[in-house]
Write a structure and sequence with these properties.
heterodimer; A: 300 residues; two-stranded antiparallel sheet; 73% helix; B: 77 residues; mainly alpha; 96% helix
């Protein structure tokens, strides 16, 4: 099929299958899936300037499907999501400003690339270690595996932060937490998102579990709710700059919708620690993609 | 197990037919107007882009939700 906006001819079956894969990952892990979709879209011949904007646009539709499903399963904390949105957008803008500053140094690809690889590798190792420990704890102490977290001490310390105002998040099972902690989580994920050019799902999901103390399923659902808002913002700004091919986004979304549904439903049958253990593989794939990209342009 | 896999494939096949019809009718219909807005007014194009993907998001949520719920209840039966 010919897409006149971006001026490319792409087989729609490839786009639908790609949408299905990233949709399933999104519904199951609460991530946007840009780390997989972007390089494949580029390989399919879509110009790079259209890749990012179009991927963000299809992410809006896909996240609506997944977030609605998670909402029906009781996995979305809307209050938490809305509070985080403000600091996430501020973080994205500051991240983008840092990028502009680094552009002048001429080493932006290497600096950002290596930062990205380091952060993703750390997240991957940490989440794998913690989830394995949580699974072991639940087995040894014969606890219901539901949502055992082996890293509770830090969460408890963070909950004791005495900076008002405080809020309660009943949907996440949190009686009282300083609003600044939530804003900080949103800001960190937004900053990394703006700095690294990826969705914040990689970072936000673990931060919500380990710092805020959300159950894994609620972290996934709330993250998807947050992605709906932040990717809508990103989609609009990219579309105004002429970087979105809506036709490609709509076709990809037809596959992503069913994938997102299946991914979201699957979370109902798998425990929190096990989801986190599977999740730990994703950042490593993202890191390897960046290393490959850096080596292909001769930066490392 | 064999029945479950068959059911999944059958539902996906029916969804595939739905997508094919949807793509032929809807996408073909809106492709030209969107292309015109892309050339003439990017602000209107951007707003319409967001509205369409949100609209399709809700429409497909409804359709896929029905498929997955039916599939789930069939498998559990």
């Amino acid at each position: 099929m010919y897409f006149p906006i971006s001026g490319v001819e792409v087989n729609v079956v490839y786009l639908i299958v790609l949408g299905f894969i990233v949709g399933a990952l999104g519904g199951f892990f609460g991530v946007g899936g840009g780390f997989i979709a972007s390089p494949i879209m580029y390989l399919l011949g879509i110009p790079m300037n259209f890749v990012v904007g179009t991927d963000l646009t299809h992410m809006v539709g896909k996240s609506i499907v997944a977030a609605k499903k998670h909402r029906s399963l009781g996995h979305v904390d809307i209050k938490l999501g809305f509070i985080m949105v403000f600091s996430t957008i501020i973080g994205i803008e500051i991240g983008a400003q840092i990028i502009e500053f680094l552009k002048d140094t001429g080493k932006i690809d290497v600096v950002i690339g290596l930062l990205y690889v380091s952060i993703l590798t750390f997240i991957s190792i940490f989440v794998a270690w913690e989830s394995k420990k949580a699974l072991r704890v639940s087995r040894v102490e014969k606890l219901p595996v539901g949502d055992v977290v082996a890293f509770k001490s830090v969460t408890r310390k963070i909950r004791r932060v005495n900076i008002p105002p405080y809020i309660s998040l009943p949907e996440s099972g949190i009686e009282s937490i300083s609003i600044w902690i939530i804003l900080l989580v949103g800001f960190i994920s937004g900053l990394l998102s703006g700095l690294l050019g990826v969705g914040g799902g990689f970072v936000r999901m673990p931060l919500l579990v380990y710092l805020v103390g959300c159950p894994t399923h609620v972290a996934i659902g709330t993250d998807l709710f947050e992605i709906v808002i932040s990717s809508s913002y990103g989609s609009l700004t990219h579309a105004i700059k002429g970087n979105v091919d809506i036709m490609i986004a709509l076709v990809m979304h037809t596959g992503a919708a069913i994938g997102a549904q299946m991914g979201a439903v699957l979370t109902r049958y798998i425990s929190g620690p096990r989801i986190r253990l599977y999740f730990s593989l994703l950042p490593i794939i993202g890191a390897l993609m960046v290393l490959y990209k850096l080596s292909s342009i001769g930066a490392i | 197990m064999r029945n479950t896999i068959l059911r999944i494939f059958l539902e996906l096949f029916m969804y595939g037919i739905f997508i094919a019809i949807y793509l032929i009718i809807v996408i073909k219909l809106i492709s030209k107007p969107f292309n015109r807005f892309f050339i003439e007014d990017l602000k209107i194009y951007a707003i319409l882009t967001l509205l369409f993907i949100i609209g399709q998001g809700f429409l497909f949520e409804y359709v896929t939700s029905a498929i997955v719920d039916r599939l789930e209840s069939n498998i559990l039966d």
